[in-house]
Amino acid sequence: MSLETSEEKDLDEKIISCPVCGRDAVRRERSVETWLGVIKIISITCQHCGYRHVDEILVEPREYGPEEIIIHVRSQKDFRKYLFKSRSAFIELPQFGIEIFPGPDARDEITTVEGVIERFIFRLETLCRDTEDPLRCQEIVDKLKKKIDEEDPDLLIIIRDPTRFSRIIDIGSL
Ligand SMILES: [Zn+2]
User: Fold this and answer.
1) Among 101, 100, 109, 104, which residue's Cα sits nearest to residue 140?
2) Ligand 1 centroid distance, CA of 53 (Å)
């Protein structure tokens, strides 16, 4: 999903050393006004090795969400609800007693409730190997995977975001 750009400001360009090859790379930073708020777009491009990295960061939301977003998924329709999830969001599944911290590669993203759960399953699966009880961890992964196809998933999700940037969004009203 692309964010409509209505206004562009503060284009900033500088030469930095490429994080991959160490030669000169261009770092561009600009802010754009979107329906979500002000987004900072940072890109790094290296002509020498072809390294390219783009990050979009919400820096000033147009609207704040609650500190805790509680979603009770009772139908497949609930899985298709959209939300903006910031890089600072913690995801908790209280029925399973698990909470996942935002990883170092967490990004600001527009996703669905299903997308949040899929990402949660993916991260949990990689963490299972290092837990005390990998079998029990894998059991939870399997249960969650089943929930995604259930008619009445009865799944509680709590999204905790100290920045309050995360919020449920109504795509239909845009
Ligand atoms: Zn390079």
Assistant:
1) 100
2) 11
Ligand 1 centroid, distance to 20 Cα (angstroms): 5
- Cα(153) to centroid(ligand 1), Å: 47
Q: Which two tokens stand for residue 161?
A: 């975001």
CB 142 within 8 A of CB 76: no
The pTM for the full model equals 0.83
Calpha distance 19→45 (Å, rounded): 10
Mind listing the domains of the chain with CATH numbers?
7-61 (2.20.25), 68-173 (2.60.120.1040)
Tell me: pLDDT of 10 over 50: yes
CA of 50 to the centre of ligand 1 (A): 6
